[in-house]
Structure formats: C-alpha cells, structure tokens
Protein 1
Amino acid sequence: MSTFQVAKCLAKLSKLSSNHSKVLVTSVRNHWNKDHKPGPYPKTESERLAAAKKYGVHPAEYEAYDDDGTGYGDYPKFKAESGDSKDPFYPWDYPELKRNFEEPLHVEFDLIREDRYDVTTKYTPSCKIQYLQFIGVMSGLYLMFWICEHFKCFHAAIPKQYPSDGKTHYTFD
C-alpha cells in the first residue's frame, strides 16, 4: 500500500470518527452490532414469521417473550438448559461453551453456562426444608453458646501461693 493510499484511508477514518464518534467508539469498545439488537415485539403473524426466520428458528417453535417492558422484543424464548446437562461427547463447534455456530443463545446465557448456575439440577431438599435445616443448625449453635456462657466450668485449682514472712515455701536442701 502506498503512502498516498494510507493517508487517504486515515483521512476517511478521521472524517468518519468526527462525524459519528459516539457510534464508532460504542461499536468498537463494546462490540455492539445493530444486527444483534432485538426488533420490536411481533404483533402480526407476518412479523412473527419474519422474526423466526431472522433467528433461524422453525416458525412452529418460535415464541417471543411477553411484551412486559424488559426489552427482549422479538428475541425467541428458549427453554433454559445449562451447559452441564448438554452432551459432552457431541462434536460442538464451540466445545468450551457447548454450542454450535449460529445457534441462538438463551437470554440469560451468561448466567446458565457450564461454569455458572445449573438450572436443570433438581436438588433433593426443598427450599422449606433447607430453611428449616439452617434455622435448626443456627439455633443449636446459639444454644451451645448460651449454655457455655452461663454455666462456666473450670479445672479444680487452689489459690495461688504468695511468699510471706516466716513461712518457707521451698528449700534447696
């Protein structure tokens, strides 16, 4: 590339950055792409079909989030499936994330990845039982503390002997 071409590219870049500096800085620093932003909530059947095609989801499987002000728009609603519950021996395109190329992500993908919270695990005790276990353990510890504070126990000991006039407490004979 010649020096003139480099100067021409830099001039174009400076014009672009001066005119659209906020957009340029935002897109470079935050890796924002306007194509990844969800569109408005689909109100008609044709909008719903277009949104399903946009995200690569079969129209029969496409369901958008409710329009409750969360900002999800036309993004598809997927069943939450953690990385721990996916097959580790499947030939994934991105094996560290257990996902394939152009596979749409769950809205809370950053929360339910393999190294985060597992939404598919059903824990044995319910929340009520876990709460009662916690209260029981803490109450037991407090009871032991209270007993040990109010009922002191010591090893038997005689009063300390201090030397006084006229008494021999020890000899070197």
Protein 2
Amino acid sequence: MLAVKQAMDAQRVISESIQHYDTMRAHSFKYRRHNVVSARIRLGYRPASSMILAGLGLATVGFGARFVIRTIPALGKKMADTVYNAPKLDSKMFASSKYYKGGFEPKMTKREAALILNVSPNANQQKVRAAYKRMMLTNHPDRGGSPFISSKLSEAKDVLDKSETAASCTR
C-alpha cells in the first residue's frame, strides 16, 4: 500500500510540474512551445503512442531488410540468366526488322514510293499529299535536310499521284 501511495505522489509531482510549465507558457512569452516539450521530456513524460510508432517503424525496417536479403541471391541468378539468354545482335536479327533493307531501285515503283512516304500503296491522293507535306517539313534542304532525300520524297509523291490519277481515269 505504501508503494502505491509513493507512486501516486510521484505521478502527482510530475503532473503538477507539467501543469506548472503549461501555465508558465500560457502567461509568458519567454517560454515557447519547444521549451514545454523539452521540459516534459526532462520530467520523464513520454507518450506511449510515440513509443509504439517507433517500435512499428523499427519492425518495418527489419522486415524490409529481411526481404531484401532473402531476394538478392534469386535476383542475381535471374539477372545472370537474362544476360546469358539475351538475343545476339547479328545480321539474322536485323533481317526480320520492319525497316526496308536495300537501296533505291533505278526506276521507282509504287511499292517503293509507298514505303518512302509510309503510306499504303493504295492510299488516296489526300493521304499521299499529307504524308509528303509532313516528311518535307523535316527533310527540306532549306531547313537542313538532304537534297537527295527531298528529291526521292518528291519522286515518290509523283509516282503515287500518277498511279492514283491513272486509276481514277480508268474507272
């Protein structure tokens, strides 16, 4: 019983000291909030919620570190397998590329013109002209483009335009 009474008296002294600092803070500007907090810490006032949060934070860090340590060996093995099984960069790989392989033909065909302008060989005149305009904006010689490429673009437009007009005349 005596121990309980002593513990209650000690708690009362702490709470009275805290109340003293709170009233001093309320009545005077020289005590700032950080002084009250530091006084509470010096008096042994530690809220349980901060201790719980600190424990949860440490547990989270521990479990995260455990996960990383366990997954690093498997990750290293997967990386080694990926590097070992990576595709080789050779001519066979580029043979199945979506880009046109080979130079220009001596006389431009409809297929080649469609490949140059990136349109369908059966595209209408509006699509051909829109594609030509878009390509010429970036490849015009006055804007730093190549004269050879711009001449090939013009030739491709002419070939597709002629084939379009020939098709429309026969209809």
Protein 3
Amino acid sequence: MSGAPQYLLALYIAQHRRDPPIPLGVVAEMLDRSPAASTEMFQRLADDGLVSYEPYDGVTLTESGRKHTAQLHETYVTVSWFFRGVLELDDYETEAMELAGLVSPTVAKRLAATLPCDTEGTATPEFDEPAPTVNEDESC
C-alpha cells in the first residue's frame, strides 16, 4: 500500500480517531511504510492541495482533501463490506484499502446493491464501519 489514495484514506481514518495534526508515524504504521516514504508522499499531497503538512507536527486534510477523501472512504467501506460479507475474505480491510482508489463510484454503488440486507432493506451492519448507502429505489 503506497499510493496516494491509501495515504489519504489512512489519514482520513486517523483524523476520525484523534485530533489533527496526525503524526506521520501514525499513518506510516497504519500502512506499514517507513516515515521517510510517508513524508515524501505527504509533501506531494501538500503540493496538490489535499493536505496541510507541517514538519515535526504532522499532517491534516485540507477542505479539498476532505471532500475528495470522503468519497474515497465511501468506496472503501462498500468494498470492505463486499469483501467481508460476500467474498468472506479474512483480510477484507487491507484488500479494500488496496482497491478503493481504483473502483469507480458506479462500481461501488453496484457492489453496495449486492450486499446482504436486513428486513428493512438496508445493508446489515457487521462491523464498525458505517453502512454503505444504497439508493432507496433499488432493492438490495
């Protein structure tokens, strides 16, 4: 896991667990990457305007970065649910992290429609991630 989407997702998740700025070591550990690799990636993401990077303080998603990563996170959650609930993969979160940046919103929406449903027609929550949204017009 070394692409920009993975770093953005890891930062997004870390910012929901603790107050920013997030130390680079936290993200590096989440992705099993070196601090040097994380520094390089976050400098590039800062150049793109997606994060605010302060050496020795950490990194924070910018407003633009939050908007971009929120959609990416929805895809990650949907893919995670699909990998766990349908494919029954053991390491579904890692696999979903790898693919989230490659899956289009259209494909994510269709995957969400294949997820197991409860009697009210919503995805059955099986773990700590929020349920992916499914269009009310569509049945699961």
